[in-house]
């Protein structure tokens, strides 16, 4: 699956999404929709029509808006015969230090805020969240085994090997991740194909040692009415 963020979307637009879909690829549209409610509903519908497998919302739009997005997307999928996408909330806390530099703070009380945001998304019947590695295990414990977690912050050392100072793919899967964002590791790799194979092997290693039943990673989601 290709994660298409703001930079790539601004360069390629919807034509890029259509071309990737035409070639048989899946898309995570990582644009973190955040606007007034009607604009978010319309944007979510267009993401669905583009064929995105996943897209995400800024969680501070509120539970009512998240639930309405889910309902509007379900309505359009029924009326137009479209595939239902995964709808995620973003549950990554980024704060400004006194020096004005952005950094992710993964300690409580912000860690508790991440879990509250994830629980809010689950209560609004969203499919899951995008979160950091440090919060993956806590979100999994809070929201249960069938809640989808997309984990960011996976990095490799130069040369495409595991960085001993950063979480690896196997650790993230064991912590409860269903999907990993690994774009930076591939863009910076001298041999992307070799690195991709290495990442897949590490994810498989994490899957084998995960406390979750492997079938749970691929189970059908609850049906939206």
Describe what is shown at a glance.
With 225 residues, the chain is an alpha/beta fold. It is 46% helix and 19% strand.
Give an account of the 3D structure.
The chain has 225 residues and is of the alpha/beta class. Helices cover 46% and strands 19% of the residues. It is built from 8 helices and 11 strands. A 7-stranded parallel beta sheet has the order 1-2-3-4-7-8-11. The chain has a two-stranded antiparallel sheet with strand order 5-6. Strand 1, helix 1 (6-22) and strand 2 form a beta-alpha-beta unit. Mean pLDDT is 85; it is low at 95-107.
Throw out a few tags for this protein.
225 residues, alpha/beta, 7-stranded parallel β-sheet, two-stranded antiparallel ribbon, 11 strands, 46% helix
Write the layout of secondary structure elements.
Elements: E1 2-4, H1 6-22, E2 27-33, H2 37-50, E3 54-57, H3 63-80, E4 86-91, E5 94-96, E6 102-104, H4 110-123, E7 128-132, H5 133-143, E8 148-152, E9 156-157, E10 161-162, H6 169-175, E11 179-180, H7 183-187, H8 192-208
Parallel strand pairs: 1-2, 2-3, 3-4, 4-7, 7-8, 8-11
Antiparallel strand pairs: 5-6, 9-10
Helix pairs in contact: 2-3, 4-5, 6-8
């Amino acid at each position: 699956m290709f994660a298409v963020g703001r930079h790539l979307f601004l360069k390629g637009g919807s034509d890029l999404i259509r071309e990737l879909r035409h070639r048989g690829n899946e898309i995570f549209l990582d644009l973190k929709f955040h606007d007034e409610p009607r604009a978010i509903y319309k944007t979510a519908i267009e993401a669905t029509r583009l064929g995105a497998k996943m897209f995400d919302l800024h969680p501070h739009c509120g539970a009512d808006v998240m639930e309405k997005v889910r309902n509007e997307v379900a309505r359009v999928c029924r009326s137009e015969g479209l595939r239902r996408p995964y709808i995620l909330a973003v549950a990554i806390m980024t704060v400004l230090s006194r020096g004005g530099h952005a950094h992710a703070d993964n300690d409580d009380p912000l860690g508790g805020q991440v879990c509250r945001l994830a629980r809010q998304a689950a209560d609004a019947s969203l499919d899951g969240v995008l979160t950091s590695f440090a919060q993956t295990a806590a979100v999994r414990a809070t929201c249960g085994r069938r809640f989808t977690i997309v984990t960011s912050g996976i990095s490799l050392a130069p040369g495409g090997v595991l960085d001993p100072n950063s979480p690896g793919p196997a650790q993230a899967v064991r912590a409860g991740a269903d999907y990993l964002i690994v774009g930076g590791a591939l863009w910076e790799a001298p041999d992307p194909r070799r690195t991709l194979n290495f990442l897949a092997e590490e994810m498989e290693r994490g899957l084998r040692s995960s406390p979750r039943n492997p079938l749970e990673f691929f189970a059908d989601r609850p049906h939206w009415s």
